[in-house]
Amino acid sequence: AVGHPLKGKRVLVTSGPTREPIDPVRYISNHSSGKQGHAIAKAAAEAGAEVTLVTGPVSLADPVGVTVVHVESARDMLAAVEAALPADIAVFAAAVADWRVASVADNKLKKGAGGPPSLAFVENPDILATIAKHGSKRPQLVVGFAAETEAVVDNARAKLARKGCDLIVANDVAPGTGTFGGDANTVHLVTPDSVETWDRQSKDGVARALVTRLAEMIAKA
Ligand code: C5P
């Protein structure tokens, strides 16, 4: 239907940072605001899709008309994403922490004679790669993001292949671009055989244009 190009489609979106605990009161995280992911969830809902948004802790309101699942750690996010399948389209916009602390202390770590603690890390699951490589439950369209500070398009191409997704939305987050936490974004759409650079625009604008593109891709597939 005109105006509702995703009617009848199920869309899954991840957004925001994850929080990886150190002890009961401390964590490791990053500066992701969730603005781009939340905007995509909203735009997909406005395009008529049934949308589930799995988000880490952000200061944004839940988008209207979207089923929102709040999580903290990467492992919780993976479990929530798997529980939200099947989906026709999955967009992974979350800034998932690459590592978590290997053994989370049961009690608050104390200052003391032993000096500062040393933390050992283990790798978190790659949620995007896990879902893109799911046999039967793989969504028809799997979209990843790439936040790069250099060689943006080359790095995105490599990521596309490594993660097994259909499209990478690459953005330049080099210091001075104002992308991280800001309201505007310059993105490059990278597929196995094309690269397109979009004019700098609001994250809402990127979200609407991306949703339009995804609707075209899924209609053609
Ligand atoms: O490898 P890198 O973190 O640059 O990849 C970014 C893309 O992969 C984003 O789409 C992000 O949401 C996703 N990702 C993920 N799980 C991870 C790491 C990244 O889903 N553990």
UniProtKB/TrEMBL annotation:
Residues the entry annotates as binding CTP: D98, K108, P125, D126, I127, L128, F145, K159, K163
For this protein, what does the record note about how its cofactor is bound? Binds 1 FMN per subunit.
- Identify the cofactor(s): Mg(2+); FMN
Magnesium in keyword set = yes
Record bears the keyword Metal-binding: yes
Q: Which GO terms describe its cellular component?
A: phosphopantothenoylcysteine decarboxylase complex
Query: What's the superkingdom here?
Result: Bacteria
Which positions fall inside the DNA/pantothenate metabolism flavoprotein C-terminal domain?
6-216
Pathway noted in the entry? Cofactor biosynthesis; coenzyme A biosynthesis; CoA from (R)-pantothenate: step 2/5; Cofactor biosynthesis; coenzyme A biosynthesis; CoA from (R)-pantothenate: step 3/5
What catalytic activity does the UniProt entry give for this protein? N-[(R)-4-phosphopantothenoyl]-L-cysteine + H(+) = (R)-4'-phosphopantetheine + CO2; (R)-4'-phosphopantothenate + L-cysteine + CTP = N-[(R)-4-phosphopantothenoyl]-L-cysteine + CMP + diphosphate + H(+)
GO function term, MF aspect, one = phosphopantothenate--cysteine ligase activity
Q: What is its EC number?
A: 4.1.1.36, 6.3.2.5
One GO process term, biological-process aspect: pantothenate catabolic process
Please list where the region (Phosphopantothenate--cysteine ligase) is annotated: 11-221
Keywords for this protein: Decarboxylase, Flavoprotein, FMN, Ligase, Lyase, Magnesium, Metal-binding, Multifunctional enzyme
Q: Which family does it belong to?
A: In the C-terminal section; belongs to the PPC synthetase family. In the N-terminal section; belongs to the HFCD (homo-oligomeric flavin containing Cys decarboxylase) superfamily.
Record's function text: Catalyzes two sequential steps in the biosynthesis of coenzyme A. In the first step cysteine is conjugated to 4'-phosphopantothenate to form 4-phosphopantothenoylcysteine. In the second step the latter compound is decarboxylated to form 4'-phosphopantotheine. Catalyzes two steps in the biosynthesis of coenzyme A. In the first step cysteine is conjugated to 4'-phosphopantothenate to form 4-phosphopantothenoylcysteine, in the latter compound is decarboxylated to form 4'-phosphopantotheine.
Q: What is this protein called?
A: Coenzyme A biosynthesis bifunctional protein CoaBC
Q: Which organism is it from?
A: Phreatobacter aquaticus
Residues shown, of full length: 183 to 403 of 403
